[in-house]
Amino acid sequence: MNKLLSDFSVGESGKIIKVNGEGRVRRRLFDMGVTPQAEVTLRKKAPLGDPMEVTLRGYELTLRKSEAACVEVEIL
Fold this sequence. Notes:
It is a single chain. Helix content is 17%, strand content 42%. The protein is globular. The chain has a six-stranded antiparallel sheet. The protein has two helices and six strands. A hairpin with a 2-residue loop joins β4 and β5 (59-63). By secondary structure, it is an alpha+beta fold.
């Protein structure tokens, strides 16, 4: 089952399938290590859902909800 990273619940994990978005946003995500085949786990969400903290490639990364909406993930 595929889901956007922005729709994850705390504790949910998956493997990144695709990174959508255009130009700067997509490049920024790739530069931070958000690439296909990487495993990602949602650790925390702010009370209003923005920002969110994920574990990716062994480190914690904070993303805006709009950035997370560009990441398509396959649930593990």
